[in-house]
Amino acid sequence: MKCIYIDKDEVLAYLNSKDRHIEGRSYEWEGEDVVHIHTAAQPHAFGCVAPAHWHKSSLPTKISTPGQYHIIITSDTEVKAYYVKDDLRLEECDVNFIPSREEMYSRSKGILEVDILSNKRVMIIGLGSFGSQIAIELAKAGVGEFALFDFDRVELHNLARHTCTIKDLGRLKTNAIKDAVIGKNKIAKVDLFPINITIHEDLMDEQVEKADLIICATDNNASRFYLTQCLLKHNKVALFGRAVTRAEGGDVFRYRPGGPCYNCLVGSRAHAMATEEITNRSQLPAYVSEEDAHAMIQVGLSSDIEPVCNLMVKLALVELSRGKKSGIESLETELDYDYYIWANRRERRHAVWAPFNNAKNQPTILKWYGARISKDENCPSCSAHAILDLGEELNTSPLENNYEGIVLDTEY
Ligand SMILES: [Zn+2]
Question: pTM, whole model, 2 decimals?
């Protein structure tokens, strides 16, 4: 017996329409006897497609084409489905429902954490290995609104560490991640911005104002500095996360209004931009480093990125549910650092760290360290005498040279 899945919202919309008969689509995975039936074509669905005829009240008297489906709907709970066999005999199918919007919001069903997160809007800049995964995790947690920024397309070199798969090759990442988000939470509102943020700064400003939380998954300082200006202007919370060279480690910075800003963290903007690990980005979006784009596949690279994504998701959920009763409220008092550091391997800036098996109280790999960042009294972004000229030189970055000047407070 074939197993049919039908979307309750489509059933309700059809019942409320004036149409007596409509021709929808069925998507069947060959040999699995599982069929998803919709009232309209699904733009990115996979599977063998055949027409599916929707009827109110009764089957047509003449059935002449094998391989098609007929759905008979008399009420939202009275739904029957038939498959037309080769000899034109009808086989009744087992009907299952994809929950309606109302059911997904219903507290008793427990499908989504609706009370806290369904009306939260998260803006994600960059849908690379970080942004894509964070979007999907937040959708799973019940976040109801997204603004996704990325003008890049899914390419072969992305696949090893990206949530997109071979079936997404060539697609805009915004569209592919929207599908993945909707796949987890079909009622999520997802606004797409397949644009270059370094050109459309005005749009970034407008969207920052609308968002409850901003996730910056770029590794381009110009965009991070501009975002910082928007955050200061609109008093918004943001998370900046990234992996450093070849994912030997990563860090996460959280900006909260009134606290130290990204500029306080990295020191001079001119210096930070001059020392970026990027040589030529003319062909690349702001959030893809040249090195990342041309990286050879490296053993474990995706798993090196994973811990940083995971902490960003946790911090995002803490920020979005702050002050509300939730399963993670105890984290509010623990995850209260401005800056978090993770090392995967004792290389480059972590080369002087202690071995994992003999660290005693010294920093070592595969543990989180929290750090408090001082607000820079002369910060060109957030101080009282902030200067908006990106060329202003103040001091060198504490992030260089083994986080000199940053006290690693806590080990997680
Ligand atoms: Zn600052």
Answer: 0.85
